[in-house]
Amino acid sequence: KLSPSISLKNTLGDYTYRANFSQSYRSPSLKELYYDFGDHPGGFPIIGNEDLKPSSSDYYSFSIESRKYLNNSLELYYNHATNMIANKFEQLNDETVYKYHNYKSVNLYGFNLNLSFNPLKDITLKSVYSYTGASSSHEDILDGISAHSLNLRLKYNFNNNFNFIFSSKYNSSKIVDTSLEDENNLRTEMIIPEYFISNVSV
What we know:
Blueprint: E1 5-12, E2 15-26, H1 30-34, E3 36-37, E4 46-47, E5 55-66, E6 73-92, E7 95-120, E8 123-136, E9 148-159, E10 162-171, E11 174-177, E12 189-192, E13 195-201
Parallel strand pairs: 4-7
Antiparallel strand pairs: 1-2, 2-5, 3-4, 5-6, 6-7, 7-8, 8-9, 9-10, 10-13, 11-12
């Protein structure tokens, strides 16, 4: 099957505009079709699924890039996946197993904002902010997605031989399912709180 793509680019004044569309297609792997790990240390078997269908996706994106200020851009994207392949807990012969399945429809969307500027002559501040949204009729396929993330990097040049660098990373809270061995396959949701990681180097 063909995987077409198209990209358009136009420059107006100090900005470059890009629009992209692509389709992708993926057949199930041998592991996803025939895997059989009955003694998985997690306490549940992991098995393949010979009835899996190929997955496909339609990806759209639009971006604006500054030509005057390098590394400053905004990108918006939308990805519609059909028959996405992932694991799912289910009951099989009175046993809870982790089996590969097709998720009929999953939508991912969001934007990435890149900014870089010099508030003072010897100081450079770079930031990358990302927003990720998702929608699906299957709750478990959305587990572990943080809606907001931010990376910051501040660099101060004292002189040619000495720099001070401060970097920080932020991820918003996300939901995960902790009921890995629940015999009724019921979800037990846990919220992993937001967090910061910072680092200083010279």
